[in-house]
Amino acid sequence: MEPYVKQTIENAVAYIEFFHPAHNSLPGDVLAELAQTITEAGNNNKIKVIVLKSGGDRTFCAGASFNELITINDEATGKVFFSGFANVINAMRKCPKFIIGRIQGKTVGGGVGLAASTDYCMATKFAAIKLSELNIGIGPFVVGPAIERKMGLSAMSQIAIDANTFYSAEWAQQKGLFTQVYESTEALDEAVKATAEHLCTYNPAAMVEMKKVFWSGTDNWDGLLAERAATSGRLVLSEFTKEKLKGFK
């Protein structure tokens, strides 16, 4: 199947779905389309609540595209590459609608950042998480603020340092990333639909004001995440990382 970003609207709920055949690892063009789709949904008066989901059954998001990563040869290109997830996170942050995360499977790196940037995140028991960036000589700099905001510095630093380990969905729930963990994708989908449609009965103006409260203190993130993207773009050119990446070509 070809990569895509698509949106469907049902009962005032926008279901925004992304997909890439490589375990939902996202290249720059898909990330740009995803950010734009979220922004447009936030401005659509026919939409009251947004659900962020991915296609396929096994992996929610494997992070950024590795095929693009290994082609980076200069800092400017590196910054643009790592700005992909930054732009999606900022689009989610600025969106005036509640965003529900539907996490059906494993999520890695940037995918953990997407889950952490939703306002209410629901998952299956198969939705283990991992921050693997230190393995190749960079770090979860861009997604770190979103993960720290949701899970706390202690939990974020634990999974960033322990970069080889998948942490269970139950652990992620205990640390505040997931609100509920379900036994199956079918049970998750039923709960997501019921939750989203119930939120549509709330006062939209109240939800807009609550969203501002949830994200208070993040007004500097446009600049902060750009700086973090530049840091990653510089580190990916290091001899350490170049040697690491040779093993993946």
TrEMBL record:
<dbReference type="GO" id="GO:0003824">
    <property type="term" value="F:catalytic activity"/>
</dbReference>
<dbReference type="InterPro" id="IPR051683">
    <property type="entry name" value="Enoyl-CoA_Hydratase/Isomerase"/>
</dbReference>
<dbReference type="InterPro" id="IPR029045">
    <property type="entry name" value="ClpP/crotonase-like_dom_sf"/>
</dbReference>
<comment type="similarity">
    <text>Belongs to the enoyl-CoA hydratase/isomerase family.</text>
</comment>
<protein>
    <submittedName>
        <fullName>Methylglutaconyl-CoA hydratase</fullName>
    </submittedName>
</protein>
<dbReference type="InterPro" id="IPR001753">
    <property type="entry name" value="Enoyl-CoA_hydra/iso"/>
</dbReference>
<dbReference type="Pfam" id="PF00378">
    <property type="entry name" value="ECH_1"/>
</dbReference>
